Amino acid sequence: MNPLPDTQAFTHPHVFLSASHDESSRRTLLVALLTAVMMVGEIAAGFYTGSMALLADGFHMATHAGALGIAALAYGYARRHAGDARFSFGTGKVGDLAGFASAAILGIVAAVMAFESVLRLYEPVEVAFGDATLVAVLGLGVNLVSAFLLGGGHSHGHGHSHHHKAHAHTPHDDDHPHHDHPHHDHPHHGEAHPGAARGQDNNLRGAYLHVLADALTSVLAIVALLAGGALGWVWLDPVMGIVGGLVIARWAWSLMRDTSAVLLDQTDSQLAGEVTEVVEGPGDVRIADLHVWRIGPDSHAAIISVVAPLGLTCDAIRARLAPVHELKHVTVECRHAA
């Protein structure tokens, strides 16, 4: 009886975190701590001075601090469990889950802002213009520093993928699916990743949008408070609140749409078209079934079933996919036409 074959050479890890994962984690944690310190300072100053403006802005900042904390925890969780076999395709989508949560929190913040602003249009309240303007300027400064630390909310992975050397299979073996797993990107070598637009880190994007929302609120508040103090336009403060709420709601919807698409394994139509083009290009095979979905900020998986003539192996099909660097986990099934 022949011994069972050694499968070690065919196994591979399922770690699909972005090349900048650890750097983004450190930056997000720093911004979360900075926001939390600012939040505590505003609330403490509000109680000390009796300023409702300070208290309101402090509690408003608490929601952003909470969302940034979720983002920081998500980075840590994804790294700690990157090799956990319970996650079939690794923890690359944990950041998208955190991004979805951030989008939900942003949506709530936008709704509360708009609702309170409408109430203040009908029931104006006395505004401490001096204290409120000081808070808004200080908050804007913190937000600008935070935005700089987050680097614009984009993950810029660099590198290029290298496919493993193709393994030989008998014609009988080619009737069964085989897996291919390229090497991970190396962040310090190679040209810019061609899928950078598709490889956005939605966790970092969510953190950045919270910082941006806070900055927008501060800018609108400064404009409204200066106009209110100088011209007596008290109504401008709630109007700016409504405008800010609508803009933030639009950002929240955009982030929720994109993260939900990843969480639901929505097909990347552009990438699927690229795969179809390179596989069917020579004109000797046809794709019978194709699934392409994202498994990490810089990584996509694909399951491809092709109808091919006898003699054309799955390895030959995988070789055609070598230029599609976004694919990090590929399964190819070859069916031979009668």
From TrEMBL:
Location of region: Disordered: 156-199
Bias (Basic residues): 156-169
Range of residues in the leader sequence: none
Keywords from the UniProt entry: Ion transport, Membrane, Transmembrane, Transmembrane helix, Transport
Localization (cell): Membrane
Protein name: Cation diffusion facilitator family transporter
Pfam families for the chain: Cation_efflux
UniProt cross-references to SUPFAM superfamilies, sorted A to Z: Cation efflux protein transmembrane domain-like (SSF161111)
Membrane topology classification: Multi-pass membrane protein
Organism (species): Ancylobacter vacuolatus
Transmembrane segments: 28-47, 59-77, 97-115, 127-150, 207-227, 233-253
Domain Cation efflux protein transmembrane: 30-264
